[in-house]
Specification:
Helix content is 61%, strand content 10%. By secondary structure, the protein is of the alpha+beta class.
């Protein structure tokens, strides 16, 4: 390399280093600031309701274990492995993570290597005037290197946006897992409530069978009328039909659980076990913690960050693009001398390009990016408000259902005592059998209502845990 070439190369190196230094100091676009969301100091619905204090005042990752249901634990543990909705969300997260890798690749030069053999010929007139050869063969092996210098931070903003998008996708995965887990827990407790309904119905069928026998005996003795027998038989058959009917609900809940854990209904079954679990004490924490504990809120916030970074990406288009390109390799017309020192060649130099007119394209792209950012801010704030609503809804449900359960338990006891008193009065001939039927029907309905309330309380407990973000925390974001 001669002196002039060395001087030129030195100048280009100095210029490139200058651009690289400038790139390290310049980033266009707004720096991200987390949007402000309305947060109250505490939950409104807690007022007037004493929240039980569990021994462990925080929700852990395996939040379902708070219910102390071993079979439920075994089912929920299969959700993350076999549930297809969760599998799809996991695949989406891997796609988002690959976009980060693609964005980071722009920090590095692109190197390509090629091999070419070109045959060419010229017209007869040109060949006679310039060269007796009509055709020639050119052998080439170029190595091309191109590198965009991130002077204005376009690539850095692109990586920032991709990283925030991947974090949002990771939070979406957690949301899908939490939703599937909560849905499974709800289906499980509803199935157990159906089992409890079936047990109550079977017990009443047995009791009504004895009442029918009693009425038949009294009818045979001439004490009771044929109408009493028919009433007793009607109540027995109606209750038997109800006991059969709850089997439909049980089958549906069982099938739903099977799908949630990635199995077909034909290969899955749940043993019969009446509901007896009481709603556990659920740690609440401060309302401000909800922003850190709900994955859907975290996902919405990360999308705001990604949209903010995209503003910098489009604003960088207003500035010149600085790149460095070089080509080197071997080139010759003789195959035997192709790969040799005299056949080598090289070229290197920076390129600066600037768009001077685009008909308003960049302005439109910038306005679009800012509007998209504003949209994501609004969605983030709406997600926060929805989160607080869901927490308040289920706190209220638990508070009200707890009071209702206490009253309903008293109603069940009173109804059972009424059945005993009215039955004795009927045996003594004081009341008609219609009074017995009325008392028995009321007792059955109250028992079933108590089971329904218990199922609703457990359902509200699951939904409250889900509304609180389960055992997740924003610190788990990659």
């Amino acid at each position: 390399m001669d002196k002039n070439n060395r001087l030129s190369l030195g100048k280009m190196t100095a210029a490139t280093m200058g651009f690289a230094f400038l790139a390290a100091c310049t980033v266009v676009g707004p720096n991200y600031v987390r949007p402000i969301a309305a947060i109250e100091g505490n939950y409104r619905e807690i007022d007037g309701w004493k929240v039980a204090q569990p021994q462990d005042n925080t929700l852990r990752g395996s939040w379902w274990e708070i219910f102390n249901e071993p079979e439920l634990n075994s089912f929920v543990s299969q959700v993350n492995i076999s549930n297809q909705t969760v599998a799809a969300a996991e695949a989406q997260f891997r796609q988002a993570r690959s976009l980060v890798q693609q964005a980071r690749a722009n920090f590095f030069p692109t190197v390509t290597v090629g091999v070419g053999i070109t045959n060419s010929s010229v017209s007869t007139d040109i060949a006679r005037s310039r060269n007796p050869r009509f055709s020639s063969t050119l052998y080439s092996m170029p190595v091309n290197v191109s590198w965009e210098i991130d002077v204005w931070g376009r690539i850095r903003r692109l990586v920032e946006s991709s990283q925030a998008g991947a974090q949002a996708s990771a939070a979406d995965l957690e949301t899908a897992q939490l939703s599937a887990q909560a849905e499974l827990a709800q289906d499980y407790f509803q199935l157990r409530a159906v089992d409890a309904q079936r047990r109550v119905l079977d017990e009443n069928v047995a009791a009504f069978q004895k009442s029918l026998e009693l009425t038949n005996n009294r009818y045979t003795s001439g004490v009771a009328s044929r109408a009493d027998v028919l009433l007793a038989e009607t109540l027995l058959k109606t209750t038997q039909a109800q006991a059969v009917d709850v089997g439909v609900q049980r089958a549906q809940f069982e099938h739903a659980i099977a799908i949630l854990i990635g199995k077909t209904p034909a290969e899955f079954s749940v043993s019969v076990m009446p509901l007896s679990t009481q709603p556990p004490p659920i740690p609440m924490g401060l309302s401000s913690e909800l922003l850190e504990r709900r994955p859907d809120i975290a996902a919405a916030e990360r999308r705001v960050a990604a949209a903010n970074a995209q503003i910098g990406v489009v604003e960088a288009a207003y500035y010149p693009t600085v790149s460095l390109a070089s080509t080197s390799g071997f080139q010759g017309s003789d195959f035997s001398k192709w790969i040799s020192l005299p056949s080598r060649f090289w070229a290197v130099g920076p390129n600066i390009t600037q768009t001077v007119f685009d008909g308003g394209l960049r302005q439109g792209q910038t306005e679009e990016a800012r509007a998209f950012y504003d949209q994501n801010v609004a969605l983030y704030r709406e997600t926060v408000l929805t989160g607080f609503q869901e927490v308040e809804d289920n706190i209220a449900a638990l508070r009200i259902l707890e009071a209702e359960a206490q009253i309903q338990d008293e109603a069940v006891k009173a109804a059972q005592q009424t059945v005993a008193v009215v039955t004795n009065q009927y045996k003594a001939g004081i009341t008609s059998y219609l009074d017995v039927i009325t008392a028995q029907t009321a007792a059955l309905n109250n028992e079933r209502t108590a089971i329904t309330i218990l199922g609703n309380r457990l359902n509200a407990s699951v939904l409250l845990i889900k509304a609180l973000g389960g055992g997740w925390n924003v610190s788990k974001l990659p």
